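Assess this:
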Amino acid sequence: MRIDEFTTTVIELLENISTFTFNKQRKKLNVPYLIQKGALYITYPHGPEGWELDVEDPEVYSVITYYNVAGGGWPKDAPKHAKPKSYKDAEKEINTSKPNLGNSELIYDGKYDQIIWSIKKLKLDPKKSFL
């Protein structure tokens, strides 16, 4: 690996680490509306072997945003792997994420930014997107 490739990789890693913070002020999200409009996908988990479609526990799910789907890779298949059994659990946990809405660590700053990006990109009504 060349030094410039190494430097770029380290910078990208540091930028990604910084997104796992819980400092941004949050608004409660209208999760059912965001799911309906394709800004959020609550899916079966995805692990190293692919989609884990045998995980029935409603408390075990993945939160994928339109930002992720638009980026390609395995998240592009999120719409095909919705897990409606988990919608209520996800809604509760999403809206109790730190810093100001509760103590859940599900939605870190970077994921919250992805949700906001998705709302804007899809031109969703802010009055309907937030509670």
Notes: The radius of gyration is 16 Å.
